[in-house]
Amino acid sequence: MPAGTKLARVAVAGATGYTGQELLRILSRHPAVTLTAAMSSGTTASRTLPALARLWNGDIVPLAPELLREADAVFLALPDAAAAGLAPDLIDAGVRVIDLSGAFRLRDAAERARWYPETRRIPSGLAYGLTELERAAVVDAHLVANPGCYPTATLLALAPLAAAGVLTPNSDIVVDAKSGVSGAGKTPSERTHFSEIQGSLSAYGVFGHRHGVEIQQGVNHSGDDSHTVTFVPHLLPIDRGILATIYVRLTPGIGEDALNDIYQRAYGTAPFIRLTGPALPEIKHVTHTNFCDVGWRVDGSGRAVIVSVIDNLLKGASGQAVQNLNVMLGIDERTGLW
Fold first, then answer.
1. Which end of the chain has fewer CB atoms < 10 Å from its terminal CB, N or C?
2. What is the CATH number of domain 8-147+316-329?
């Protein structure tokens, strides 16, 4: 940053969770911000984070909304209900908010009431923060709803195809997605117990996962609402990463080269999208990075398989949140993430 440039004051609420700790790790070395506060999601006593020693040596303090109002921008890595209640008040106080919960992701009021009933007030200046596709809306947003991890991986692969009109109308889209166990959050459960997940692979949330609604919303928003999305998530016995395998049917004459042209037009200058073509990407290629790698194959009958991979804690959460902050600040969106 140029000498004399004023640093943005940022705070993190929910700093002890997986995404909160990733935010602290990124922001502690971010040259355009100063970290003014890091808070837990409740009233637990102050504590330090040994994993961040010599990176960030501050204390995690109990949640204090009055301190959050002193920041220029606040990251909310809180449960849905807490974020739904806190974000509107921060917006009213002139603070820009990047929310990593699901509280404000759904545009449709009926769907939002079903999946996020705690969200009773939608502040003005709301943007959906899928950065590469919504950058123009993020620039001036007061509140950015950071997308879910599964929708990020899926929509970055699907949305350009839907927008280009190359998906066969009225066809089914099948999303078979697999996530590391950190995607389930830090609160332990029987499903995430080591003895249950190690050496296993399980489907969950079939026809009942809220990220499926978010993916359907993204496909419709791209300009083609004729498709039905079937989304099935799976839990992998790894700590982080998402691989989404997406099955679609293409209109006649659309092959691998045509998909390459579409993706190049959509992402040719996007710093965090890597297009791999028929060399299908793997989770290990993106872990601990903010990249999304997208590859594809097409057969002679119009069937296409698209594979998209991200780190669920970075591009699927904290990394994308900081990318959105950079866009909001008007600086290179790679800052702090490269």
1. C
2. 3.40.50.720
**Do 314 and 289 form a contact (C-beta atoms < 8 A)?**
yes
Pure H helices in 175-273: 194-197, 210-221, 256-267
CATH fold label, 150-312: Dihydrodipicolinate Reductase; domain 2 (3.30.360)
Alpha-carbon separation of residue 163 from 8, 69, 243, 254, 299 (angstroms): 35, 39, 22, 14, 21
Active-site residue list: 149
Token code pair at residue 3: 């000498």
189 pLDDT band, cuts 50/70/90, is: confident
Is pLDDT at 45 greater than 70 in this prediction?
no
Q: In angstroms, rounded to a whole number, what is the distance separating the alpha carbons of residues 126 and 120?
A: 14
Domain ranges of the chain: 8-147+316-329, 150-312
Can you tell me the distance from the alpha carbon of 167 to that of 205, in angstroms, rounded to the nearest whole number?
26
294, 273 Cβ separation under 8 angstroms:
yes
Q: Give 3-state DSSP helix, strand, coil % of the chain, rounded to 5.
A: 35, 25, 45
The answer to whether 247 touches 192, Cβ cutoff 8 Å, is no
- Cα separation, 170 vs 40, in Å, equals 46
Please state the pTM of the whole predicted model.
0.93
Query: What are 242-295's pLDDT values in tens digits?
Result: 999 999 999 999 999 999 999 999 999 999 999 999 999 999 999 999 999 999
| Other beta carbons less than 10 A from residue 247's beta carbon | 15
Contact status, residue 312 vs residue 321, Cβ threshold 8 Å: no
Reference 317, options 17, 7, 90; nearest CA is 17
**pLDDT tens for each residue of 284-297:** 999 999 999 999 99
Answer whether 235's CB lies under 8 Å from 202's CB: yes
Over residues 100-108, the mean pLDDT reads 97
Question: Could you tell me if 307 and 296 are in contact, meaning their C-beta atoms sit under 8 angstroms apart?
Answer: yes
| CA nearest to 113, candidates 155, 80, 87, 88 | 80
